[in-house]
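Chain and backbone:
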Amino acid sequence: MWKLKIAEGSSPWLRSVNGHVGRQTWEFDPSLGSPEELAEIEKLREQFHVTRFEKKHSSDLLMRLQLSKENPATTDIPQVKVKDVEDITEEKVTNTLRRAISFHSTLQAKDGHWPGDYGGPMFLLPGLVITLSITGTLNAILTEEHRREIRRYLYNHQNRDGGWGLHIEGPSTMIGSVFTYVTLRLLGEGANDGDGSMEKGRDWILEHGGATAITSWGKMWLSVLGAFEWSGNNPLPPEIWLLPYIVPIHPGRMWCHCRMVYLPMSYLYGKRFVGPLTPTVLSLRKELFTVPYHEIDWNRARSECALAFNIQSLRSYSRRAFPVVEDLYYPHPFVQDILWTTLHKVVEPVLLRWPGKKLTEKSLRTVMEHIHYEDENTRYICIGPVNKVLNMLCCWAEDQNSEAFKLHIPRINDFLWLAEDGMKMQGYNGSQLWDAAFAIQAIISTELVEEFGPTLRKAHTYLKNSQVLDDCPGNLDYWYRHISKGAWAFSTADHGWPISDCTAEGLKAALSLSKLPAGTVGEPLDAKRLYDAVNVIFSLQNANGGFATYELTRSYSWLELINPAETFGDIVIDYP
């Protein structure tokens, strides 16, 4: 049976600044679970599967089942029902609040935070599975139980039309469908397995133009895998990292999530890295495209997705002729087409030959320096799941026996979450601080502090243990980083990226707790640490008075013109 583990980290390859406080991982133990418990779990899984098209989200029922036994409610408060507004009294409201907080307290982890599902996107697991497949570590890192639950999740979130969406509630898209189909194949599913689900998925892909119509992130991952050619990608030049910082398009000026994703992407592109061409990969070359692989026009494929959207927008072609529109949230502007063509036709031929090749080699070394800095200062969690697996792959591509790659491996579990719909990859390593800060404020606002002192005390402990206590080392300007001492991250101190609103909510919770009796909620946060939090918040205020998210706004909104990610808009700079 699966068990949720809290604040544990026994691997010698794990690093932590606070004893792994906030860490939430799932572990399978075949010795756990009575026949009744196992039957109950299977019932919950079946119930989700039956209603999967009507109810897309899981309800964390496996976690609740475990915590209900570990943290049983101490009182049984009856539900209050009212038939009319006149029936509402202060006593009834208080009892309802008391019942709600009592239940919420049973879901609190031993370190004080509230664990939970932070999944939804369907484009995260594929990157992990592709990386593990390329590095030959798939079966060693993902046990058969892991692989079974991942397959369950992917099948559960297949749409009625056979495709998969960008996220679990979305309509079928090319990137969602190709990514999921490829992931299932790499996990061992045959081309016709899944009681017809694989065939339905493949039919959707081919009926909508094949994998050449996938968006740029999909093209990159398929190229790394060996199921797409790098010549079918728009350029991702690592040399851009060598530009002077004063240049507005320098990547150091970009929003950190955008910067940290395109950093490792540019490394893989600069090396034209391709994993081993296994029988499965060679088979995917036949399964994913509408024409034989060797006949594909890769130059046309570079912009095929954008072409489909633009022609469709003219309303002069039928949807059947150009059906891939859901993928293109942000169609490329004309200036971007000029940029990519110039880089592809003019600049890259120079960089691929001496002496231009020397510049590329230097840029690759620079990129890897920044990748290692990000890894080390997030304890190999990284800012998010996309750059986590990309950085991991880059470390392996640089040195297959590197210590950095080994340090990445145990942190994979920080992103995997299990529920009745299967195992998913979360959009962060959790939302621990964010949820705890709001829970603290909500409980205090009910004026039931004395009754729920133990709950608040535990949450207060988590709040104190999860504050970031130091800036990242070295010259922050060189690494394009902002100060972080005194901040709170969205999740854990080990993650460590400072965020303005998370820091504000953490500070507000800490100040609210400081007004309450220490005997009830614990000793208040040291005043110096409160000042540090205020300092971080003020440091993130832009000249126009607005607050950025992770860093100050460093460039101009027109930089969005070169946003290469058709799937996402407004991602290039940190907007105030």
